[in-house]
Amino acid sequence: MRSALMGLLWLGATPVMANVWPELALQSEHPVEGMRGGNLSGLALCQGEMWAVSDRDDDQIYRLVQRTDQWQVEALSIDVPPAPESGLPWGVRMMGKAISPLRGGDLDFEGITCDDAGNRYVVSEAHAAVLQIPHMGAPAWLKIDPALVRQARASGMLLHFNALFEGIAVNPQGNQIWLAAERERRGLLTIRKKQSVWDCESGCVLMSEGGLEQPPPQLKVKAQQKDFADLTLFEGKLFTLERMAYRICRRTPDTGEIERCWSFASDALTDARRYNTGYGNAEALSLDAKGAWIGIDNGNHARADGEKRPVVLRFTAPQGGWSAKS
């Protein structure tokens, strides 16, 4: 049994089946009403409040207010300065600029996180940049060493349009950030704050991997590229949302190595909750001691039961909590 488990933990080329890990149990689901652009792409629990971003909206983020089973949004308008140069090549930047009128936004916000001081941080996939939204004051882009993008690309990440940074997490002190590169290749990177600049210190890249992942059998599709859809830090560990595999994985913050995973496929892929798409829809992740919040980006598609709004699913924490070893 031990040797079999170690085989599952190995980050090699062999696809890992999405249904070999324990299943999380669905506790509740919450349609999100009032998100202007739809396309829920990030969640963060900040000082007891749930915040969200949409990859269609450049000028506002959202606070989610629970009203019975439905969540209503309260929009916070933000005045975003021009995005900085991050070192992305011309071709990738031009593809993003060309698609922005169709997508509805130039920045493509894909993740949100917050520190203990109440600062919120939003990652722009289109620009490979991080916007800080303080509790008081004007938003500002972080000054990030261009070595972040250079090292990521040297490791095979950030090479393709719309496959850039997809998730972000910050430590409680607000001086270290982790970023998740989405796919082809996916990976985890980190930067640390040194005075006014965020740099790579001894290296930005924690892990980088490619290869195929076999989606849950309910999807009835062939193996897909391994991906990350979101990232969160909880109790000193990184947790990745792995969209095509329909699972959450706990990883070490220093190396990104998998410690433990949990599947949410059984309840997320019931007949009523299915979308007529051949890909995963889970885009946003936030954890607390009692469970996980997983945001579904429906991409303007209706579920089989007719629900057309973004939905947040609440899953109960595993027995023994998120730090459990079995």
What do we call the CATH topology?
A: Neuraminidase
Q: Per the principal axes of the C-alpha atoms, what is the gross shape?
A: globular
CATH architecture name: 6 Propeller
Q: What do the pLDDT scores average to?
A: 90
Domain Phytase-like: 38-185
Protein name: Esterase-like activity of phytase
Keywords: Signal
Signal peptide: 1-18
In short:
The chain has 326 residues and is mostly beta strands.
Tell me what you see in this structure:
With 326 residues, the chain is mainly beta. It has a single domain, classed as Neuraminidase (6 Propeller). It has four helices and 24 strands. The strands form five sheets. Strands 2-3-4-5-1-24-23-22 form an eight-stranded mixed β-sheet, with no helix packed on it. Strands 10, 11, 12, 13, 14 and 15 form a six-stranded mixed β-sheet that branches. Strands 6-7-8-9 form a four-stranded antiparallel β-sheet, with no helix packed on it. β3 and β4 form a beta hairpin. The N terminus is likely disordered.
